[in-house]
Amino acid sequence: MYVSSEVVPYLAENEVSLMSYDAPKMINDQGGQIRIFMPKYGSINERRHQLHEVIRLSGMNLVVNDMDMPLIIKVASIPKERIQVYFIDNDEYFKRKSTFSDEDGVLYPDNDERAIFFTKGVIETIKKLNWVPDVIHVQGWMASLLPTYLKNYYKNEAIFTDTKIITSIFEEGFEGVLNESMREKVAFDELPEGDLTDFENATYHNIMVNAIRNSDGVIVASENISPDLTKIIETYNKPFLPYVSKEQFAEAYTEFYNKFF
Fold first, then answer.
1. How far is CA 233 from the centre of its chain?
2. What residues have CB less than 8 Å from 129, skipping those under 6 apart?
3. Is residue 159 within 8 Å of residue 169, measured between CB atoms?
4. For residue 232, pLDDT beyond 80
5. Is 78 helix (H, G, I), strand (E, B) or coil?
6. Is 137 helix (H, G, I), strand (E, B) or coil?
7. Is the predicted pLDDT of residue 40 greater than 80, yes or no?
8. Neighbours of 223 (CB within 10 A)
């Protein structure tokens, strides 16, 4: 299962969106059963991409910072690939036309809540589908809360007992800091104190450190990630795949996945 901030062809091409298409396609071509989850940003044209709401999965409310927020699930198939993509939607969080920042390039102040909502929406949808993924591969910072929520907030969900989490680390992130109250918002979900510390200063670096610590394996997905993040990956002594070129990734990713199931 792939949980991604951005996926081609629904959003513009960049390192995250391209790999969030290439990796699932590669496993799909090998006969693996895969699904992709991403946010349903307002810039995604529902008619052109033939999105439709899945009524049986929609309708529940997710609690974000003590607020009930309705969850809408939409689905589409990537043309010619027979790959299902599930879109996590909510009018308050995702109706706006751009992804992470306004027209002046300023990060949306509720990006932290959007990430929490997206994470919970993905996990609750999997539970409703009753589909047990062997591996969850997280790509992009909007998806990066999933490891800590799965290992802590959802730790008693038997469906995920044997599921392994892999996080890709990209050079592309965001400048600045997410909402200053992000620590209090994730504390509402009773995450451990060690994890809460990462969100006191919610920079891209600190959020990815949290994802690394709560993942079972790490993939370096960009050629030039920061030396600090490289050191963090090595410090935690988890299975990790160093950067490989696009021409070589298929064999390397397949071999890495096979370590976990």
1. 18
2. 57
3. no
4. yes
5. strand
6. strand
7. yes
8. 10
Give the chain's count of helices (H) and strands (E): 10, 11
Computed over every residue of the chain, the mean pLDDT equals 95
Please give, one letter per residue, the 3-state secondary structure of 80-100: CCCEEEEEEECHHHHCCCCCC
CA pair distance 228, 32, nearest whole angstrom: 35
Report d(CA 202, CA 193) in Å as an integer. Answer: 15
The amino acid that residue 120 corresponds to is K
DSSP letters spanning 154-214? TTT-GGGTT-EEEEEE-S---SSBS-TTHHHHHHTTT--HHHHHHTTT-BHHHHHHHHHHH
Shortest CA distance to 112 belongs to which of 4, 221, 200, 19? 200
Q: CA distances (Å), 94 to each of 21, 59, 72, 140, in order?
A: 21, 16, 11, 16
Q: Dump pLDDT digits (tens) for 150-172.
A: 999 999 999 999 999 999 999 98
3-state secondary structure of 217: strand
- Tokens, residue 46: 């529902």
∠ Cα 18 24 29 (to 5°): 120
Question: Percentage of residues in the chain with pLDDT exceeding 90?
Answer: 91
| Among 142, 70, 149, residue whose Cα is nearest residue 112 | 142
In the numeric block, which tokens belong to residue 153? 């907030």
Question: In what helix (H) or strand (E) does residue 73 lie, and over which residues does it extend?
Answer: strand 72-78
Structural contact between residues 120 and 183, judged by C-beta atoms closer than 8 angstroms = no
Helix, coil or strand: residue 55? coil
Kind plus residue range of the DSSP H or E element containing 114: helix 111-129
What CA–CA distance (Å, rounded) separates 141 from 39?
12
